[in-house]
Amino acid sequence: MDDVVAVAPEFEDMDLQTVLEELSSRETRSRLIQGLQLTDAQRLSIPSSPDSTTTPSFESTEAIPPTHLLVAHDGLNGPSFAYPCHAVVLASHFALLPPSPAPYPQPAGTIHRMDVVLPYPAAFDLLREYAYTHSSEALISRLLGLAPGVPRTSEAVFEELQDMEVPELEVRARMVQEVYADATALGLVDKQFWEQIQMASCFVAAALNHAVWRDQMEELGERFQPPSESIPVITPS
How far apart are CA 63 and CA 128, in angstroms? Predict the structure, then answer.
């Protein structure tokens, strides 16, 4: 909670659950997401160093501008990915995130660079979306490659996965693994998230087993086709 208060002193007298409820309220969430959308649309250049800043233009008075441009990379020679974020959302969701490089207060609309090393930098996009929306349906849909916005039972999810081929299911399995690894590295604090990750992992594993079995049965069927000519039927005299 100290990290949250450091970037948002207005929450000093609240516990973490109350802060999360406030951030998840319809009005606040809408203003935060609008700030992300306006910033994403401007395709900001990445500041050259953690001490440098950039200032996007905001015409909307409702949107809450992001405070940071989180630059995720693997610490090696892989590509970097830049994600506008709000410091209070980061601090309230990721327990192992490095401290914010920008002290509070800071000029409104100023975005500071924050470098973060992650196992799979591209997968942070899904974690960021979940931190702002807390949508289990959207999380499962993106992890499993299903059409968004369609409520599904567990049986319906598995039925859709059964239509996928092995290579596509292997892609889904890797995505679940990558999101899991990034969430672990960042110390994501959200019970619902981890339940959905476990569920997605079980879905993919079951669907993969089914797809492999199906392909093996089809291969066996092709190898042992019955003779094309009709087999005479012997009737007892």
Answer: 17
Decide: pTM greater than 0.85.
no
Q: How far is residue 47's CA from residue 43's CA, in Å, rounded to a whole number?
A: 12
Which one, of 129, 116, 115, lies nearest residue 179 by Cα?
A: 129
Dihedral (Cα; 159, 165, 166, 171), 10-degree rounding = -90
In Å, what is the CA distance from 122 to each residue of 70, 126, 215, 236?
12, 9, 32, 71
Q: Are 91 and 97 in contact (CB under 8 A)?
A: yes
Scored b (16 or more CB within 10 A) or e, 195-217 reads ebbebbbebbeebbeebeeeeee
Residue found under tokens 């039972």: 153
Which residue's entry shows tokens 């319809």? 26
Closest CA to 19 of 3, 31, 4: 4
Report the DSSP pairing between strands 111-117 and 68-73: parallel
Q: What is the pLDDT of residues 145-164, one digit of tens each?
A: 988 877 778 888 888 888 88
